[in-house]
């Protein structure tokens, strides 16, 4: 049984996948995808509404057109984002979160809540560390 820094006991591997670097490659690649700067921003924006490409690009500023395309394609490949092409002239394409994407949004909101709850402590730790490094 492991003990956390907060003094809580924890049973290794009890109900949660391993997040070490030597974990299964698919898990590692999923964590890399959802942890990248642009994926988080896109998922959070799509959590508010369905958007067209250029609307999304304005909201996720300063993302480039190419990077948004790459990010959307990767999120679509992972089943987190759906792409709907409407048969209009010119064609209209909408992007939205899938059910899986919505479940990820819940996790990202929890993570943002954790960051908010600990922001002051982390800021203090950074200032202390930086002062010692000088």
Automatic annotation (TrEMBL):
InterPro entries: HTH_HxlR, WH-like_DNA-bd_sf, WH_DNA-bd_sf. Keywords: DNA-binding, Transcription, Transcription regulation. Residues 1-22 are annotated as: Disordered. It comes from the Bacteria. SUPFAM superfamilies: Winged helix' DNA-binding domain. Signal peptide: none annotated. Residues 19-123 form the HTH hxlR-type domain. This is Helix-turn-helix domain-containing protein. The lineage of its organism: Bacteria, Bacillati, Actinomycetota, Actinomycetes, Kitasatosporales.
């Amino acid at each position: 049984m492991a003990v956390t820094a907060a003094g809580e006991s924890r049973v290794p591997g009890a109900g949660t996948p391993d997040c070490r670097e030597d974990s299964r490659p698919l898990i590692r690649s999923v964590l890399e995808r959802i942890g990248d700067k642009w994926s988080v921003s896109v998922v959070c924006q799509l959590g508010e509404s369905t958007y067209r490409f250029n609307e999304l690009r304005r909201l996720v500023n300063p993302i480039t057109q190419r990077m948004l395309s790459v990010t959307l394609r990767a999120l679509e490949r992972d089943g987190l984002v759906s792409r709907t092409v409407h048969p209009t002239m010119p064609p209209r394409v909408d992007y939205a979160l899938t059910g899986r994407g919505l479940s990820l949004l819940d996790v990202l909101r929890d993570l943002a809540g954790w960051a908010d709850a600990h922001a002051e402590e982390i800021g203090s730790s950074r200032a202390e560390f930086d002062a010692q490094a000088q």
